[in-house]
Every structure is written in structure tokens, then in C-alpha cells.
């Protein structure tokens, strides 16, 4: 029996129209510390959404809960798949979450210095291979075909990033801004529905940060995906996000547009200084 779209929705957890991801009442404790406490927020389709908060507010823990690296003590992480079906990610393991189109890029760049930028893009793409490890090892035709398609896709991503000229250059010795772009490129290679970025502007100079702002806008438009980010650089967050969730001590202080967050008294007190 084939299920109609309506039937799939009926059996799925409920998610508001236009919402891609919702963390619903998520909580987690480590020992006696409640790192995240009954937190609810949602990210819409094709939205850039920021999470801000002082050190230890629980931001990274939220990312770890979304990607199922940590299992929440309670709550749900609802996600709309490409076919419209809504699932609770809590029932999945991290690699399965990645296959659903949620990709995370880390604050620490993890590139292989002695590989070209193109090859660095392809590292990690193996998770999306359809062919078996066996056929990849034996380099059977199907595996070779798949590798060729991925390589072409990597070249498209490099072109999008403005790095075609550097495709064959080693990662070693590249400017930090270029390495950061390759990190982002890895996420793009996997047809993401949601890209999760941990402090993408950390360590970038002003020009590189401006460049990244343009790139995030272009990703949203050309790849038609959403971006969820943690960032301490307030100017960058305010420039780039449609909505922001401000956290403090594991709890939500406020959600709103950059203007609303900037003007929110509790947020001013917590992060921006009372002035
Ligand atoms: N695996 C863990 N074991 C024990 N405590 C943890 C663990 N992960 C996070 N915590 C605690 O949870 C709290 C929230 O940490 P988290 O790293 O999420 O904060 P953050 O907002 O990302 O901070 P920062 O901006 O400094 O990265 C902190 O008190 C931290 O020590």
C-alpha cells in the first residue's frame, strides 16, 4: 500500500507549516548541572537562524542534541524531510541524521594538509556513497561512476566558493578564510537541508567576515537550505540572521528579529551590557 502525503503527515509528529526544524522542550543535565532546560525554538525553511549566549549558556549542547551526538533527557527534535514527512530525530543515530540532510561544520577546521582542496572536499562525502565499501575497494564500475559524479559536484562547489583556481593546491599554507570555505563546501556537497555552523566567523578578519556574510546569503539562495549558527560576533549575527534565539543558563531568554533581540532588556543585560 502506498501512503498519500496526507496519510504520512497524519502519522508524523506535527510541525507548523514552513518550519524545517523544531526543538521542542529539550532538556539535558550533566551530573547536577542542567545544561539545557525545556528549550523550544524552531527554524523555518530557507532561514538563517542564530543562537547567541554567554559562555556556558548551552549553545553547543543544543547543537549536539540536534545532531543526536547527545541524547536529550526529554523533549523532541522534529525535522521535515525533503518529501515533507516529519520525523523525530531522537530515534536516530548521528550518521542517520546526516543522511537526512542535516550537516554540521565545526569550529576547528579539520582538513588534511597534504591533500588538495578538491580532495579535502571529497573526504567525508563517503557517507553519501550509495555503493558498498566492497565495490569501492575493488573500484567496480558503479563505484567509479559515483566517484566521478561526486568529483564533478565538488568542482561545482569549488566554483560556487570562488576557489576553482585553487582546486589542485594543497590545503597546507592556504589562508584561513579559504580553509573555512572548504569546511563550508563539505557541507554543501551533501545536498543539505539544514547547515549547522559553530562560530563560523571565529578567527576571521573583517574582510573574510564580510566575504562569509555574502557567502551565507548566496548559500541560502542557491542551495535553498536553512542555516543554524552559534556565533559570538554580534555584528555578524545581526547582519546575517532573520531570527535569533538568545540563551542564558540553558534557558531561552528571547527569540526575535535582530532588532527585537538588540532592544530586548534581558538580552542587553545578559550579553550586550546594560548600556
Ligand atoms: N559532555 C559534557 N559533560 C559535562 N558537562 C558538559 C558537557 N557538555 C556541556 N557541559 C556543560 O554544559 C554547560 C553548557 O555548555 P555548552 O558548551 O553547551 O555552552 P556554550 O553556550 O556552547 O558555551 P561556549 O560559548 O563557551 O562554547 C556548561 O556548564 C558545560 O560545562
Automatic annotation (TrEMBL):
GO annotation (BP), single: L-valine import across plasma membrane
InterPro entries: AAA+_ATPase, ABC_AA/LPS_Transport, ABC_transporter-like_ATP-bd, BCA_ABC_TP_C, P-loop_NTPase
Nucleotide-binding found in the keyword field: yes
CDD domains: ABC_Mj1267_LivG_branched
Residues covered by the ABC transporter domain: 21-274
Pfam families registered for this protein in UniProt: ABC_tran, BCA_ABC_TP_C
Keyword terms of this UniProt record: ATP-binding, Nucleotide-binding, Transport
Gene3D superfamilies: P-loop containing nucleotide triphosphate hydrolases (3.40.50.300)
GO molecular function terms listed in the Swiss-Prot or TrEMBL record: ATP binding; ATP hydrolysis activity; L-isoleucine transmembrane transporter activity; L-phenylalanine transmembrane transporter activity; L-valine transmembrane transporter activity
Tagged with keyword Transport: yes
Gene Ontology CC entries for this record: plasma membrane
Descriptive protein name: Branched-chain amino acid transport system ATP-binding protein
